[in-house]
Amino acid sequence: MTTANSNTPELLKNVLVTGGAGYIGSHVIYTLLRTHKYKVISIDNYHNSFPAALTRVSSLALSELKESSPEPSAQDIDSTVIDVHECDLINPTAVRSIFSSYASKGGIWGVIHIAAYKAVGESSEIPLTYYANNVAATISLLQIMQEFHCTRLIYSSSATVYGVPPDIPIKEETRREGDSVYGRTKVMCELIIEDFCDSIMNDGETNPFQAISLRYFNPAGAHPSGYIGEHPRGRPENLLPLLAHMAVGTVTDPVLKVFGNDYPTADGTCVRDYLHILDLAAGHVIALQALEEGSELNAKVFAGSTSSNGKFKAYNLGKGHGMSVMQIVDAMRKATGHDYKTEVIGRRRGDVPELIADPALARAELGFDAPRDLETMCRDLWNWQVKNPTGYE
Amino acid sequence: MTTANSNTPELLKNVLVTGGAGYIGSHVIYTLLRTHKYKVISIDNYHNSFPAALTRVSSLALSELKESSPEPSAQDIDSTVIDVHECDLINPTAVRSIFSSYASKGGIWGVIHIAAYKAVGESSEIPLTYYANNVAATISLLQIMQEFHCTRLIYSSSATVYGVPPDIPIKEETRREGDSVYGRTKVMCELIIEDFCDSIMNDGETNPFQAISLRYFNPAGAHPSGYIGEHPRGRPENLLPLLAHMAVGTVTDPVLKVFGNDYPTADGTCVRDYLHILDLAAGHVIALQALEEGSELNAKVFAGSTSSNGKFKAYNLGKGHGMSVMQIVDAMRKATGHDYKTEVIGRRRGDVPELIADPALARAELGFDAPRDLETMCRDLWNWQVKNPTGYE
């Protein structure tokens, strides 16, 4: 084992983030930049995101760096600059040429694959677009990674792979069963990645490919600076952004429609496991570090790999606590001062009463924790919304 | 309803067959040509097939036509000519241009999508190639069909979608669970097709797309003329072709290795449901006819559609009778006169003891039957092998 001399810093590792400009992508990139260990390359087609997010992430990281170290090194400054590529993942030629352009710069060390279409309702209307953008694009990305001997992948999965879970809290070993087109695209991608990890190389060697699938519960909030946050194109689909938009006045609904209050939960409304976006982002950085061969973390994580040849592991990223729709409304009422009116209407097709992670595995093996509380999530969300009533536009 | 005047024949319907030159494709095309109702368009990349198969199918159909009608019409003769395209389904530009070239000729009426990689063992070695060729190619084909308003699909599925079936004989409603990479590609394609059938169009109209998935059990035999048959590239993977090659001398193994004789079956060896390739092919033609809107068959088939918006239906194509490895060896011994020696070795990973179709649904709704017996399958296979010891080469 070599120890880096503090005067000759280790080379930055090239990490490709797909969907880098999105809500999750931008916070993941911010968290990566803060480590000053990675050169971040973003691929995004800006279908549901904005290039401005990347500019802001970059200046945020640079300003924090200058605060902490008045004379940062050139390498440190370089580590705050993002290589930005506008590119569609379903275009293999474009993706291949990006991989190719880093070949002479040490290659791409690892990929964090976040890009995907994610609206459950829309997925049932345009399923082929979802299968092409989520599944076919992932197959193509994996093929290109294999061509370029890029062997480390963090995959953005979701609690949606559990469908209607048989038990709460949900353990990672729960059977996977997509309950919507979107959900099925996530299950299929996990299966494909797992099969790839499992495959035997031509030369009979073990596949060096390693993948960690992160199953997100409900990310919320924003960076406390209010520089970056969630900007859904069109009307917000999710509860927290919708409440923020109602409070700031960009959604003018007089009442919030609550879909059912007769679920078998404490107050009858649906319960979800919310975690702060920066905690979620931190999970990605830990997972990426776990792909470092020879490290203690690597050994720990893949000791229980479900893949027989290569290395595949899935982790829940959640707090392990549930919040009901009504609790969320109350928390946002406190954070915003807005007097939300609610109206209970019928249940919405496809809604599951309760989705709560069992976070034990991620805690034990990755040391992952999601300490920020609901109050912080609401405060940071509101700060972002007030500073950017129309988001990045 | 209009009745076609016998003097002015109905226009031939353009039917695209993917994987048209393969073992199943060539027999399906032969059976289509015999109806003189279709203009057949073949797409194949000849990865596991030979262009010669299509030439032979065409002359076979023409010679049979001339035997039955000494002065066939120009339209009848045209119906024996296959439009042959060498094309890879994973190349959307090439596929799109083929669809485009028929736009002025009435468009493509329906698609029989057979092309796929199919070796279970290989699929675990090169999973990404399987996912790309089987799953991504199917997504792309469906997208192109949608662009060109082509709304009728017959999909080549397989008994492999049942994995290790919980009950024998296997009903279509059995849960789907791929037990190999190959099996998972088939399950995923069925799910994707079903979701597409289920989707609501932009204009709120019902999706006019109709699909029938045919779940093959074990096709065997050849056309009795010996003109067309199965020509696996490399060493045959399946039992019957292997036995035929051993008898003809192109495989020189002194003994047949039998993988396990301690299964819970009558003689302890694995049991499969073999059906004659021409019976299987006939099933495709009936299924294609069932996609004719307004027909009695169409109404019958989709009355029990599992899709809530469009029309999706899956049928087993099998005889409903099982044959053990030892019974197959005996039948081939009779057909070939070859004195097979067998040696029982250990079970093979992934083998299921028994796979037998419940053929009741296909019989009741499609009127499908598989009358040809094992003796006929072995005789026709042997006839093909003797006339073509090295297949199409």
From TrEMBL, chains A, B:
It holds the Pfam family Epimerase. GO terms for molecular function: UDP-glucose 4-epimerase activity. Keywords: Carbohydrate metabolism, Galactose metabolism, Isomerase, NAD. It is an enzyme of class 5 (isomerase). InterPro entries: Epimerase_deHydtase, NAD(P)-bd_dom_sf, UDP_G4E. Its EC number is 5.1.3.2. Residues 15-295 form the NAD-dependent epimerase/dehydratase domain. It catalyses: UDP-alpha-D-glucose = UDP-alpha-D-galactose. Pathway: Carbohydrate metabolism; hexose metabolism; Carbohydrate metabolism; galactose metabolism. One of its GO terms (biological process) is galactose metabolic process. Its cofactor is NAD(+). GO terms for cellular component: cytosol. Homodimer. In the N-terminal section; belongs to the NAD(P)-dependent epimerase/dehydratase family. Belongs to the NAD(P)-dependent epimerase/dehydratase family. Mutarotase converts alpha-aldose to the beta-anomer. It is active on D-glucose, L-arabinose, D-xylose, D-galactose, maltose and lactose. This is UDP-glucose 4-epimerase. It comes from Lentinula raphanica.
